[in-house]
Specification:
Order of helices and strands: EEHEHHHEEHEHEHHEEEEEEE
Number of helices: 8
Bound molecules: zinc ion
Number of strands: 14
Radius of gyration: 19 Å
CATH architecture of the largest domain: 3-Layer(aba) Sandwich
Strand content: 15-25%
CATH topology of the largest domain: Aminopeptidase
CATH class of the largest domain: Alpha Beta
Length: about 325
């Protein structure tokens, strides 16, 4: 089945004013409250086409966000890919040379291998190492309900529950090749309190995705006691938040062929009642759900061969 084309309702903000920043790293700005507290970072544009994060940071900048304690940093990761954003061809600006959310592996960062994304990651790396709590803001290819993703470490689960927004949280390894920023060593070390969460705010270009992204950032700051209640109340939309639904990711499904097709236009978070239900065909092979009430997380309708096409998850009791 062909994937649905979504309208581009959001417009990419002008982020040129944030290039210089004040940290010595382009497109990272640090706002110091002057009071003791954690270093919290909101990170946008790990994928250049996922503009909701940039819209959120632009909104916080324009409304002069001030942390009530500690340090708040606002960063735009793959700005070079983003600067190529063209609403006529909105998928083309995801990255320049490679997926920047797969490069967070020491062996690659320390190597002399070259790509734009590796260069940028090397530039940002020390900065990320100074961050205590990171929210990496993303969006999805389908109009799936928003979901927080993490590996499921205890510290990640605790923080996810404290944040309590958006409505879904999926715990479990991403089954990715390489490592995402939230799996970068300091955040991935169970003995290090540094914690990173990734939030998928909705379909890349739908209006509501930017609302969810801003709310996710605000709830993240609120959970860490970093935002004034008046600021939170003035800018939040989903208040009170819906109850959190927790999912345990049990496996990632990879396509074998270029002929992988879902049997329906799944968007994500569908609960498939019966084990053994055919949800896709990969060439000649049927792809079936492994257990009853299997939840489909982030189906990818435009994957070629050997790409992750969906994750299976169980709803927690
Ligand atoms: Zn992304």
């Amino acid at each position: 089945m062909p994937s649905v084309n979504y309208p581009v309702e959001l417009s990419a903000p002008d982020i040129s004013a944030y290039m210089a920043g004040n940290t010595g790293v382009d497109y990272i700005t640090r706002i110091d409250s002057g009071k003791p507290g954690p270093h919290v970072m909101l990170n946008a544009l790990m994928h250049g086409n996922e503009i909701c994060g940039a819209i959120t940071l632009d909104h916080l900048f324009k409304n002069k966000i001030q942390p009530t304690r500690g340090i708040l940093s606002l960063g735009f990761s793959n700005y070079k890919a983003f600067l190529r954003f063209d609403p006529q061809r909105p998928l083309m600006s995801r990255y320049v040379d490679e997926d920047m959310n797969r490069v967070w592996v020491e062996e690659r960062l320390d190597s002399d291998e070259d790509s734009w994304e590796l260069r940028r990651a090397r530039e940002m790396r020390a900065y990320f190492e100074s961050v205590d709590y990171l929210l990496d803001i993303h969006s999805m290819s389908t109009a799936s309900p928003a979901v927080t993703l993490c590996n499921g470490l205890d510290k990640e689960r605790d923080l996810t529950r404290k944040v309590g927004f958006p409505e879904h949280a999926a715990f479990g390894s991403g089954f990715v090749v390489g490592r995402r920023l939230i799996e970068y060593t300091p955040y991935h070390d169970v003995n290090d309190p540094k914690t990173g969460l990734l939030v998928e705010c909705g379909q890349h270009w739908l209006k509501d995705t930017a609302v969810t992204a801003l709310d996710s950032a605000l709830y993240f700051l609120k959970a860490l006691d970093m935002v004034a209640p008046e600021f939170f109340d003035a800018h939040v939309t989903n208040n009170p938040p819906p109850p959190l639904r927790e999912l345990e990711i049990t496996e990632g499904v990879y396509s074998k062929s270029n002929a992988f097709r879902f049997t329906e236009q799944y968007i994500g978070m569908e609960v498939i009642e019966k084990a053994g239900t055919v949800i896709a065909r990969d060439g000649e092979e049927d792809i079936v759900t492994p257990y009853d009430n299997c939840v489909l997380v982030m189906p990818n309708h435009s994957a070629g061969a050997k790409m992750r096409v969906v994750r299976f998850a169980r709803l927690s009791e």
